[in-house]
Amino acid sequence: MPEQLSDTSAAPAAPPTGYARLFTVREFRTVFAAHALSLLGLIVSEVALSVLVYDLTGSPLMSALTFALGFLPYLVGGTLLAGIADRFPARRVLVVCDLVCAGGVALMVTPGAPIAVLLALRCCVAVVSPVFQGTRMATLAEILGDGDLFVLGRSLLRIISQSALLVGFGLGGLLLTVVSPRHALLITVGTFCASAALLRFGTRRRPARAGNSGALVKDSLKGARQVLADRRVRVLLLMFWLPPMFSVAPEALAAPYADDLGVGSVGLGLLMCALPVGTIAGELYAGSRLRPATRERIALPLLCCTLLPYLGYATGPGLAVSLLLLVISGAGAAYTLGLDQWFVREVPEELRGRAMTLITAGLMTIQGVGMALAGVAAEFAGVAATVTGAGVLGTVCCVVLALAARRTEGLGPRGSDGRARTEGLGPRGSDGRARTEGRDGADHDVTGR
Predict the structure, then answer these.
(1) Nearest by Cα to 394 from 333, 319, 321
(2) Which helix H or strand E contains 443, and what residues bound it?
(3) How far is CA 46 from the centre of its chain?
(4) Membrane spanning segments where (predicted)?
(5) Span 172-193, mean pLDDT?
(6) CA-CA distance, 339 to 350, in Å (whole number)?
(7) What is this structure's pTM?
């Protein structure tokens, strides 16, 4: 009987899916590595500088102020310097921002530097951060396109940031058991320089998105007005900003709530970790298992539900139930994947850097405001009532924003002069096909599918 020849040819490898697709893009791999390095440097610098200031002053207030200064200057940098993101080549902006941060931290290491100088340098680093982050996000749209890959890329960078919060401060504390705060700051200088080198030699030079149009501050404020002039974009910005203002309440009040429960430092650590864990899980699932159209379809329902678990605090839950409520609430933040797609679709390319910088500046500022308001409310109403109130008020705001998003859907992107764009068939779906709005207000593919 003749011997049958078996087919030994290897089957073609399946193309990567989900987040794995991002790493097939060389420039994204570079941006990802640079993000991880600069984030590591920022976390280590926050921990080391806080400890250094406490060692020099013995004041818990001054140590806490060092952390607070990481939030406050975002509003200044994000509004007055936002024009940098569009009027200069992106690679140059990113590299210079990293080098400015490295230089600022290097000056912190100077022996005998006064406390005022240390805090001023901390402010300088924080002012630069929104410009860097906004420019990077706008560049991400150029590297990955403004479709699903951009959404996944932005999501992955957020996941890395949340993960860094879970482990970064602990690693920073361990590092300070081995080296002094000043030596730890030197490590930070190295990470910022490494990030600058990666971005300089690992990304392609691209021209500026907008021309030089006069004084920087005036141009930045003009750009902010142009971004905010569009009603649809204003609604989307508020969807980025307002829910986090309410969602930070349990984290801001984790210490007193852990004390009320009598769960000690271990319980406090778990309460601080629960919300980021839920956020990471929700984004990972939505990014890897759901299709782009599905992520957009569930964005508004998730937005309306993400703060509802906080109402469970009205019953004064124990540790286990509190952790479950926080994880579920964090998972609802997956609405941002759909929101990212809408935002990059609506904002004109020439304003994209400024728009992304505004998102970062507003988000950091409003989270700081939310933490402060939660602390004030808890002084009078207690922790459980404050978190419950944040859930109620936040849910009402989210529902109002969802209704506003529905009303503004289909208005179409606007040019930098504020006029609606009329060319083409209007905004495009997550699959890139042009969409038109039917009489019933629902979106339909032009192809009829």
Answers:
(1) 333
(2) strand 443-445
(3) 18
(4) 31-54, 60-81, 93-109, 115-135, 156-178, 184-202, 235-255, 261-286, 298-315, 321-343, 355-374, 380-404
(5) 82
(6) 20
(7) 0.78
Asked if residue 443 has pLDDT above 70, the reply is no
Q: Are 27 and 202 in contact (CB under 8 A)?
A: yes
Which residue type, as a one-letter code, is found at position 298? I
In this structure, what token pair is assigned to residue 444? Answer: 């339909």
Give mean pLDDT, residues 100-110. 90
Which residue did the predictor score with more confidence, 181 or 22? 22
User: What is the per-residue pLDDT for 171?
Assistant: 67
Torsion on CA atoms 107, 111, 113, 114, rounded to nearest 10: 160
Q: At which residue do the structure tokens 């971005």 appear? A: 199
**Could you say which DSSP state residue 147 is in?**
S
| Strand partners for 428 | 434
Cross-strand bridge partners of residue 420: 414
Q: How long a stretch of residues is the chain? A: 449
DSSP 400: H
The CA-CA-CA angle for residues 27, 29, 33, to 5°, reads 120
Say yes or no to pLDDT of 379 above 70: yes
For the cut 90, the answer to whether the pLDDT of residue 91 exceeds it is yes
Q: Which two tokens stand for residue 236?
A: 């989307």
Q: Which helix (H) or strand (E) holds 444?
A: strand 443-445
50-59, long-range: CB within 8 Å, 24+ apart, which pairs?
51/176, 51/181, 52/108, 52/118, 52/181, 52/182, 52/185, 53/115, 53/118, 53/119, 55/181, 56/115, 57/115
pLDDT of residue 3: 45
Q: What is the pLDDT of residue 16?
A: 66
Per DSSP, the residues of 199-233 read HHHHS-----SS---S-HHHHHHHHHHHHHHSHHH
pLDDT at 70 exceeding the cut of 90? no
